[in-house]
Amino acid sequence: MGTFKQYSVLPGFNLALGFTLLYLSLIVLIPLSAAFIRTSAFTWPEFLAVVTTPRVVASYRLTFGASFAAAVVNAIFGLLVAWVLVRYRFPGKKIVDALVDLPFALPTAVAGIALTALYAGNGWIGQFFEPLGIKIAFTPIGIFVALTFIGLPFVVRTVQPVLEDIESELEEAAATLGATRLQTFTRVIFPTLFPALMTGFALAFARAIGEYGSVIFIAGNMPMISEITPLLIITKLEQYDYAGATALAVVMLVISFVMLLIINLLQWWSRRSMAA
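The structure assignment produced for this chain is given below.
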């Protein structure tokens, strides 16, 4: 009892904790548990046979590879966009700031159609790459573009508040002590931003893994080439193969959980290093 009382700063803590656990159970734990229970219809060899076919493995490779690559690019350029929005004043700044949130508000199907129209061989942007032999739409490159588009706001909006809270006196003190601009950024600013940057990276990565609407329009959906795992899950559902669809979902869930756990451990290590 004493362990719980020390956290009871606000009245009604036990009741609030109960509602929190109940809500998380209904919304998160029970649905995820149902996915694992559904796969119990398979024996272990049958489960492996379903989730390790060449077509499915190719979809894993594309889904997680493109999602990771898009999250890395978003982490780099999202940091740059947040830096510009926080540190500089320029005409149209509020418009640019509002445009960052556009992927949040835009329906995924609309985003997919728009990106396909832009990057198709006869599109406004794709027409310049087509003569060079670079095809964007209906290839894995198109999937990467779509995932980058939908993931950028997660990084910007996570890093931006932290960047705003960094006191300029720290940078001035570093400059006074003889630090170069690069040293000030790498040793003073970046360690403070790193946990927020990793959080934004994790959010962008998680969002990209589950993306479906914007990807199917620009992917081409060719088996073994540009077919993502969520599309395979939908295909199995349309074929009334519910156990097979759930098996693929479980694999994606486990891999996603492991990768997000690793990212959270990196965040914890970063915060611990800063505290030390």
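Interim note for the steering committee: The longest helix spans residues 54-87. DSSP finds 14 helices and no strands in the chain.
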